[in-house]
Write a structure and sequence with these properties.
Elements: E1 8-14, H1 22-35, E2 45-51, H2 55-59, E3 63-65, H3 71-78, H4 94-106, E4 109-116, H5 118-133, E5 139-144, H6 160-180, E6 184-189, H7 196-199, H8 210-213, E7 222-224, H9 232-246, E8 249-254, H10 265-269, H11 288-301, E9 311-315, H12 319-322, H13 328-346, E10 351-358, E11 370-375, H14 377-380, E12 392-393, E13 397-398, H15 400-410
Parallel strand pairs: 1-2, 1-4, 4-5, 5-10, 6-8, 6-9, 7-8
Antiparallel strand pairs: 2-3, 10-11, 12-13
Helix pairs in contact: 1-3, 1-13, 4-5, 9-11
């Protein structure tokens, strides 16, 4: 144990949307601190505390002592979906962060670990800067988490591979449903500004029938991402082309699709919708986008005096985040980033965010490898990563490079037979 470590307590919090593996990161921090002797007599780190519902609980003094939490129960907790400590959507401003810092001083907290997305990293950054300005030694570490996969520097973020696995498997099954009772099916998938999760629907496609049909006809045949401007007339024509050819069409749409001026299609359609702490209309809690697109297709594609086209829409919503079919890579890395953050804290680092960096080339059949690195809080705080152009093909598809990028993260998918 380094003699440079300041004596005090450690605190861990979870923020933002829960995921299937966020508790792996929680357990990773606890394990990393325990390995360094936290909670043992004479160790500088006296207690390991958990914030109930993130910084909301910290400022209210609602803390849970995890110092001696039983090892066997920790292992079960790690595999349990959703945030074990509870989460929060609070986006602290400077005044809120001052209260966070005061709570740290009140509870003798010197090691602050926050698991979350870009807004959580920003909270970590602000609290860290305030602590430095007041000469209060507080070691602040952000641990990445988000199913949107939109954190800068990171190749990908814990939570995304498992959510992508759900999307791929759900679309595989949904496509089989679509060919059993042909029609037009729309699936609205999470992703306000980044299309990674919607793009993962492409993993549902197979190529086993390409010899007979001139290319895979598996759905989704059309994929719409927030990085590409959405045009309703072009959308109708895209669907008509597929429907005329096959008598069915399977579609994946990001909840964050926008027009060429950047206006959110869902935000414009959802009247009087609830907003979160960031002022965003809550797209995942409404089926309005899917319903509106369905109505549009029914209107435009139904022949005059003819039978209405069969169109259905589902909004995957919150079920994507915590479905208990975790990716093995996701489980391992979510635990790993937590352990790495703890290691940084007890090795003398004063602050930072943990990033997952891919060290292997992206390509079909390439072995996957990655490592963890410390990056500056300012590198990721309050910033959003988008799908790179090389992952996008045209206005309604993803590239082979994206598939090669995503496959090793998601893991093997089941094979299904078609007659």
């Amino acid at each position: 144990m380094s003699i440079d470590l300041v004596a005090g307590n450690a605190v861990i919090g979870q923020s933002g949307g829960p995921t299937a593996v966020i508790n792996e990161s929680l357990v990773g921090v606890i394990e990393g601190l325990r390995q360094a002797g936290a909670g043992s007599p004479g160790n500088p780190i006296k207690k390991i505390l958990g914030m109930r519902h993130g910084v909301t609980g910290l400022t209210n003094g609602d803390l849970y002592d995890l110092t001696d939490y039983p090892h066997d129960r920790l292992q079960v907790l790690a595999q349990t979906p959703s945030a074990g400590l509870g989460s929060t959507r609070d986006k602290p401003d400077s005044a809120y962060c001052e209260r966070v810092l005061e709570a740290c001083k009140e509870h003798d907290i010197r090691y602050f670990f926050y698991i979350g997305g870009n807004d959580s990293s920003d909270t970590c950054r602000i609290v860290n800067e305030m602590a430095n300005e007041t000469n209060y030694e507080l070691r602040c570490f952000h641990i990445p988490k988000t199913v949107d996969n939109d954190l800068m520097v990171n190749d990908h973020t814990p939570g995304f591979p498992s959510a992508a696995r759900f999307v791929a498997k759900a679309c595989m099954a949904d496509f089989l449903d679509n060919i059993s009772l042909p029609g037009i099916k729309i699936n609205v998938i999470m992703g306000r500004h980044a299309g990674f999760l919607t793009a993962a629907s492409a993993l549902a496609r197979r190529d086993d029938r390409s010899d007979q049909e001139g290319g895979s006809t598996d759905g989704p045949q059309l994929i719409y991402l927030p990085e590409v401007a959405f045009d309703t007339e072009r959308f109708v024509q895209d669907v008509a082309t597929i429907f005329d050819r096959h008598g069915r069409c399977h579609i994946a749409v990001s909840e964050g699709i926008s027009d060429k001026e950047g206006n959110s299609i869902g935000g414009m359609l959802i009247k009087n919708g609830q907003t979160d702490a960031h002022g965003n209309v809550q797209l995942s809690g409404s089926g309005a986008l899917g319903d509106a697109l369905s109505d549009l297709l029914k209107e435009k594609l139904t022949p005059v005096g003819g039978k209405q086209v069969r169109v259905r829409a589902d909004t995957f919503g919150y079920v994507q985040r915590c479905f208990p079919d975790q990716s093995h890579v996701d489980q391992r890395e979510a635990r790993g980033v937590g352990r790495y953050a703890a290691r940084l804290a007890v090795s003398g680092d004063l602050d930072g965010s943990v990033a997952i960096i891919r060290t292997s080339p992206i390509g079909e059949g390439q072995p996957y490898a990655a490592e963890y690195r410390r990056i500056e809080l300012s590198d990721v705080a309050a910033k959003t990563k988008h799908m790179p152009a090389e992952f996008i093909e045209g206005h309604n598809n993803v590239s082979q490079k994206f598939l090669d990028y995503c496959r090793p993260l998601v893991g093997s998918l089941p094979l299904y037979e078609r007659i």
